[in-house]
Design a protein that fits this description.
Blueprint: H1 2-7, H2 11-19, H3 21-28, H4 50-53, H5 55-67, H6 74-81, H7 85-97, H8 100-116, E1 118-120, E2 126-128, H9 137-169, H10 171-175, E3 179-184, E4 187-191, H11 197-209, H12 232-235
Antiparallel strand pairs: 1-2, 3-4
Length: 236
């Protein structure tokens, strides 16, 4: 998983390539491209992109990349995809095959929720659960899913919160006349003078990529895009 993030690019296509042997073979045989950066004078890639040639496989990979964080089960995926539980379970196995560390982490989170009745985010905030000793099966399933989801979503919130604090503490942004207006998930919106927009953008990108008092304590880089515009729509 760390290698995939460090490689960058189209994460969902890379996941599909790792999951499906026929997709991987097509990439290795150069029948499709995992990614493509157009060069001057090039209007289209020399061979199809993976996301176009294997759209169905990539869509499943993308859904799994997001669903795993929510503790999705084979039963839930079978309903989403309108396939049998066996097919959904087999697809899940393909995803986990190269990500045994994710499976091990999820197991630890479930054990923590049952033994300690709480799990923790990156910065130590806790999500508490009732004692599961005599709980019905349905409630145990809910806690298992929440035990996986809460640290993921909560840690993402930790990062966003620290980034906003880093922006708020930045004296240079204040000198340039910029102020934080709004946070939307992993985005922040600031307002300030046009003449200092590019300087402010660079500072904000730095704050968000190193949100922990000017450092990044994670094992992967925090890639940040920043744009300037007269409105939020223009900057999208």
């Amino acid at each position: 998983m760390l290698d995939a993030f460090k490689a960058g690019g189209d994460f969902h296509s890379r996941t599909a390539m790792n999951m499906y042997e026929h997709v991987r073979d097509a990439v290795h045989e150069k029948k499709v491209l995992l990614e493509w950066q157009p060069q001057p004078g090039q209007e289209k890639p020399p061979v199809p992109l993976l996301k176009d040639a294997f759209g169905a496989e990539r869509r499943k990979a993308k859904m799994l990349n997001f669903s795993i964080a929510y503790g999705k089960t084979a039963q839930g995926l079978s309903r989403d995809w309108q396939v049998s539980v066996k097919e959904a379970r087999d697809t899940l196995k393909l995803w986990y095959r190269d990500r045994k560390e994710v499976s091990a982490w999820q197991k630890r989170q479930k054990e923590l929720a049952r033994e300690k009745c709480e799990v923790y985010t990156l910065l130590g905030r806790s999500r508490r659960f009732p004692n599961m000793t005599h709980a019905p099966h349905g409630q145990k399933g809910h806690v298992d899913r929440a035990a996986i989801n809460a640290p993921v979503q909560g840690s993402a919130a930790d990062v966003a919160m620290c980034a906003m604090l880093e922006i708020e503490r930045n004296a240079r942004l204040k000198e340039l006349g910029w102020r934080l207006l709004l946070q939307v998930h992993d985005e922040v919106i600031l307002e300030g003078p046009t003449e200092s927009a590019e300087a402010a953008r660079a500072i904000v990108v730095e704050c968000m990529s190193k949100p922990f008092y000017g450092t990044n304590i994670l094992k992967v880089d925090l890639a940040v895009d920043g744009k300037c515009g007269k409105s939020w729509y223009d900057a999208k």
